């Protein structure tokens, strides 16, 4: 089976050193009988991603508090129901937080003396805007909240094909603005710095939002989608390789786009934003996987940020596939450096 797995990587197997954790991960997926994207419905892919997270996401070392808030969506005159949308968000608070219940909807969260001005991180899950849920990044986010002593807002947003683009972008933009306007209500401080982050499609959402929402302090983009043209060397390298590949991305794009014109919409494709829009964006941390069709568009976005004078760091994780970042229960070695990098980056915006 080992030779068969390596052969599935084609020329990439000779060009790159595939980490043993990557090989063993796909060995396990093969044993589970995972279906290819092109042979699956959205419901089947949603189930597969949740099962994968259950098996490989690992445990959270977290003893703080978690509460729910209902966040109103933004009204869009072109869609009469959008203003009735409720975005459900979880607030993961590091150990030492006291919570007092208010009579009004939700909870009022008050940080204890551990940290006077906690950073607030607004996180958007991945899943190609078609699958995934806030449950998938939850173990990582709880660990981050504990280790970086920050607050985390974990956002649920509408998915395609039931709600095609730009629905997810509108939801996440509304959630981000609400957090910026309600920092003290959720237990932060008036001086708390707010940043956005996300993996894959979540990184796409985070990147797009930084161009439209002012007042953000930082952004963390984990192998983000920044363009849907699929015209990069990494797309040509990983056409039918194990895991997310060019064929799988085509499946996602076909499901989340409302029309062909959206392929050049800069809201959906943040790489296509004009250069002037990049000036003054918040500091960025970009984490990319070497064995990922999204690698080169992530690199291109980093370069555009850097060219605009944005303080930007990038980490390319060698031998890693797409989706490794949230699966530390299996990828124990290759998640160490990027997870540590994220913790250190978030701590820069903390005030004790």
In words, what does this structure look like?
With 352 residues, the chain is an alpha/beta fold. Helix content is 35%, strand content 18%. The chain has twelve helices and ten strands. The strands form two sheets. An eight-stranded mixed beta sheet has the order 1-2-6-5-7-8-9-10, sandwiched between helices. Strands 3-4 form a two-stranded antiparallel sheet. The longest helix is centred in the first third of the chain and has 15 residues, at 42-56. The radius of gyration is 19 Å and the shape is globular. It starts with a helix and ends in a 5-residue tail after the last helix. The model is unreliable at 76-89 and 94-114 (pLDDT under 50). This is Alpha/beta hydrolase fold-3 domain-containing protein. Pfam families: Abhydrolase_3 (PF07859). GO terms for molecular function: hydrolase activity.
Quaternary: single chain
Approximately how much helix is present in the residues?
A: 25-40%
- Specify the overall morphology: globular
Termini separation comes to 53 Å
The gyration radius over C-alpha positions equals 19 Å
**Percentage beta strand:** 15-25%
Strand order of the main beta sheet, please? 1-2-6-5-7-8-9-10
**Given the structure, what is the number of helices?**
12
Average pLDDT for all residues: 88
- Mind summarizing the main beta sheet? 8 strands, mixed
Detail the poorly predicted runs.
76-89, 94-114
Structural class: alpha/beta
Total E-strand runs:
10
Order of helices and strands: HHHHEEEEEHEHEHEHHHEHEH
């Amino acid at each position: 089976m080992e030779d068969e797995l390596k052969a599935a990587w084609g020329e990439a197997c000779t060009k790159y050193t595939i980490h043993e954790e990557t090989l063993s991960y796909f060995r396990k997926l093969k044993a589970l009988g995972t279906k290819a994207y092109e042979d699956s419905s959205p419901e089947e892919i949603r189930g597969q991603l949740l099962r994968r997270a259950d098996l490989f996401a690992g445990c959270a070392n977290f003893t703080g508090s978690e509460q729910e808030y209902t966040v109103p969506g933004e009204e869009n005159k072109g869609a009469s129901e959008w203003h009735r949308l409720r975005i459900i968000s979880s607030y993961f608070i590091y150990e030492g937080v006291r919570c007092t219940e208010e009579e009004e909807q939700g909870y009022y969260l008050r940080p204890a003396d551990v940290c006077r001005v906690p950073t607030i991180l607004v996180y958007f899950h991945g899943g190609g805007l078609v699958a995934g849920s806030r449950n998938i990044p939850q173990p990582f986010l709880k660990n981050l909240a504990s280790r970086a002593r920050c607050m985390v807002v974990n956002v649920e947003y509408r998915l395609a094909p039931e709600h095609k683009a730009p629905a997810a972008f509108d939801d996440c933009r509304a959630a981000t603005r609400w957090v910026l306007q309600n920092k003290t209500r959720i237990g932060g401080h008036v001086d708390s710095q707010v940043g956005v982050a996300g993996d894959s499609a979540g990184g796409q959402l985070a990147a797009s939002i930084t161009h439209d929402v002012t007042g953000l302090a930082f952004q963390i983009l984990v192998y983000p989608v920044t363009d849907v043209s699929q015209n990069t060397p990494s797309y040509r390298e990983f056409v039918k390789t194990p895991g997310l590949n060019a064929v799988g991305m085509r499946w996602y794009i076909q499901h989340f786009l409302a029309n062909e014109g959206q392929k050049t919409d800069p809201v959906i494709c943040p790489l296509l934003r004009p250069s002037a829009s990049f000036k003054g964006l918040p500091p960025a941390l970009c984490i990319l996987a070497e064995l990922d069709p999204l690698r080169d568009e992530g690199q291109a976005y980093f370069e555009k940020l850097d060219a605009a004078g944005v303080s930007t760091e990038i980490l390319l994780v060698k031998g890693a596939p797409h989706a490794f970042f949230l699966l530390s229960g299996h990828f124990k070695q290759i998640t160490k450096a990027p997870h540590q990098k994220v913790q250190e980056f978030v701590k820069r915006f903390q005030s004790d």
